[in-house]
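Board notes, transcribed. Complex of a protein with fe (ii) ion.
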Amino acid sequence: MPHYHKLGQIPSKRHIQFRKPDGNLYSEQLVSTEGFSADYSIVYHCHPPTLVTGIDDPVSIAPDIAIQKNMQNRSFQGFKVKSTDNYLDSRVPVLVNDDCYVILAAPTNWNSRQSAVGSRQLKKNSDKIPKTKDSYFFKNSDGHEMIFVHEGEGVLKTMYGNLPFEYGDHLIIPRGIIYQLEFKTDQNRLFIVESFSPIRFPKRYVNRFGQLLEHAPFYERDIRKPIKLETHDEIGDFIVMVKKQDQIYPYHYASHPFDVVGWDGYHFPYALSIHDFEPLTGRIHQPPPIHQTFEANNFVTCAFVPRLYDYHPLAIPVPYNHSNVDSDEVLYYVDGEFMSRKHVERGQITLHPIGIPHGPHPGTVEKGIGQKETRELAVMVDTFRPLKITEQALAIEDKGYYKSWVE
Ligand SMILES: [Fe+2]
């Protein structure tokens, strides 16, 4: 969790009168987590954030599970997920459990004027779906999100301000933050982890005051916070698509969700670029935890970045065979060559589940000996409970992958 931040105008103390130029009060909102026991922010709106004028019928976006119990190494071609002109439609869950969903998305735009949510559901429930005339907002009340930007750039817009993003960024959006993504072009590829518990820095990276320690692979200067507060003092019909319990509830509000004049606290979205992750290296092969970026309940994420190889004279840089006794291992290949695999595509996902070992592909161990560096770039998600496989994942699966270790 990043440290204290503030933007805009705030009064000198909490919970006191804070008036607009016309003499009326601003509307204070406490955004608190874990009840009142964890990070929070205090936000000042032009209008109360409670002005609901209507709620349209909810629509289910629950993942369709194809394989409840997986016991096979698998691979999926993530770039085969079709691009779609609406952000919510574009989100395709591929691997899911009760702790997190792994989602792929290729939005060409935030919103098309015709559609609202879930192309799958649009077909099933087309008469029930409200058609948005203007752009909607999205609020995930189920999960905290890590959006890894594989392709694309733009601006994450929230009531806490704007956060520009680009290739390689992890955008961390805590649960309940209303947002929009403004894309610069229609070429966007996102790898999203939706977490049902807060996404935090690994405990061993921070001191007892919460500061990132010297041995951590990134530092506070690498954490980018919202930089520009845009105050939309507007009254109208604003649609916030609220996700809760795998349903989308189209909420109509009378005031613009980003009508904030100021805020302060510890609860806000932030960005960490994979290109700012400083790799740790050693004389012999270093284990995956040195690549860790974030942790949540029952899963961790890692970043594999360009780095020097192990430098012991007899070092074997390619990783050993490995048994996941108690974690499903998801690797999302971003860019560069991968030393342990014979052939990988950008956007490919491998899943190596609890219960069986996996290891380097034939020939890669000898090939790696003597090499000085790798240019690989990948994001890993290790879940401590098994992942289920969705119908959409099966549609992009490389069916023969589980036999790929046999020459
Ligand atoms: Fe592994």
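The CA atoms of residues 324 and 354 lie 5 Å apart. The radius of gyration is 22 Å.
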